[in-house]
């Protein structure tokens, strides 16, 4: 069986990786198709070597379509919508796999162009998406990205190598790129938490897009502190960071659900900087894109309204990690799904049975 993963953005890869591993264990042929316009080919060349896969680089969606029509694989995975499915479906079956389980309505709208199957994570998400698209085919499997965490195969970070103390508790700060709390944190905020390790894992787009240069300037300042490790552009996966962290800070990221599924506390930052097109009279655009009607996470963990509140909130949550434990279990069942580490196996089983 030949399977291709349409990799519009390289940050899809952590979601694809456990499935790729499972496919290769079963002797299937795996290829990635990556987009030059979205990703730097030279930066990530060694990543594909590590995965053990071939990578075909294309300029845009039309060139990707031509590749799929030429190769005629059995299955093609997409992390987003694709505008040439009628042609593709003459030769191949398609599977849609979201790269996150965040609160954005776009999670659901990606299914506006129906594929052969879409793999869904939690029970509540499955129920809701079936209401939106009753004629389409959805299969609940869990969240493949977290398989290495649940199976215990994730190695994590080498604290000696990155210069952190393994005896200290660890805070993971994983802001998204927009809307982001990143620019609302002080330049010297690690000084307020010197008794902890601080892992900072920004969104991949923060690392590469010109419009986020102010966010990168903040990261550079934070990285100078002795208790901080800031992920590089090549640190695509959040899993090694989650492995060691005792608590997560984020604002509107899928990371909140992923970390809560590990049974660890999260703090939701309700302060963030909006780009100009979401402010003032344009605030309706923000509500339309990030409205919380699709995923209500008010009870997932402690919410803070300002940076200063973190000075008491962080030690309080670290000392009482069970405070939101029951809520985390409920959210995990609804949004992340089974936590047995077998989501990727269920996906490959389906591909083999319906190939």
Automatic annotation (TrEMBL):
Name of the protein described by the UniProt record: CDP-glycerol--poly(Glycerophosphate) glycerophosphotransferase
Organism placement in taxonomy: Bacteria, Pseudomonadati, Pseudomonadota, Gammaproteobacteria, Alteromonadales
Entries under InterPro entries matching the protein: Glycerophosphate_synth (IPR007554), TagF_C (IPR043148)
One GO location term (cellular component): membrane
UniProt xrefs under Gene3D superfamilies: 3.40.50.12580
GO MF annotation, one: CDP-glycerol glycerophosphotransferase activity
């Amino acid at each position: 069986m030949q399977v291709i993963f349409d990799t519009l953005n390289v940050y899809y890869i952590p979601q694809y990786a456990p499935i790729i591993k499972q496919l290769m264990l079963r002797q299937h042929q795996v290829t990635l198709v990556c987009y030059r316009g979205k990703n730097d080919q030279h930066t990530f060349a060694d990543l594909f070597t590590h995965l053990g896969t071939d990578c075909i680089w294309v300029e845009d969606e039309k060139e990707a379509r031509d590749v799929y029509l030429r190769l005629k694989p059995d299955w093609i995975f997409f992390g987003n919508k694709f505008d040439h499915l009628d042609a593709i479906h003459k030769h191949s079956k398609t599977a849609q796999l979201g790269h996150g389980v965040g609160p954005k309505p776009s999670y659901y709208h990606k299914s506006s162009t129906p594929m052969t199957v879409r793999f869904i994570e939690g029970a509540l998400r499955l129920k809701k998406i079936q209401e939106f698209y009753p004629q389409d085919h959805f299969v609940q499997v869990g969240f493949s990205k977290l398989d290495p965490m649940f199976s215990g195969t994730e190695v994590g970070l080498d604290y000696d190598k990155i210069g952190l103390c393994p005896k200290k508790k660890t805070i993971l700060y994983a802001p998204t790129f927009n809307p982001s709390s990143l620019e609302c944190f002080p330049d010297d905020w690690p000084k307020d938490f010197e008794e902890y390790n601080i892992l900072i894992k920004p969104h991949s787009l923060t690392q590469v897009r010109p419009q986020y240069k102010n966010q990168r300037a903040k990261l550079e300042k934070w990285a100078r502190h002795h208790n901080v490790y800031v992920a590089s552009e090549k640190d695509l996966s959040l899993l090694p960071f989650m492995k060691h962290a005792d608590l997560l800070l984020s604002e509107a990221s899928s990371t909140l659900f992923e970390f809560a599924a590990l049974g660890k506390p999260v703090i939701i930052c309700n302060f963030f900087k909006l780009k100009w097109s979401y402010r003032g009279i344009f605030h309706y655009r923000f509500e339309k894109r990030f409205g919380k009607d699709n995923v209500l996470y008010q009870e997932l963990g402690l919410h803070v309204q300002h940076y200063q509140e973190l000075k008491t909130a962080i030690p309080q949550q670290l000392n009482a990690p069970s405070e939101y434990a029951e809520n985390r279990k409920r959210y995990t069942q609804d949004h992340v799904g089974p936590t047995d580490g077998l989501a990727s196996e269920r996906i490959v089983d389906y591909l083999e049975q319906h190939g």
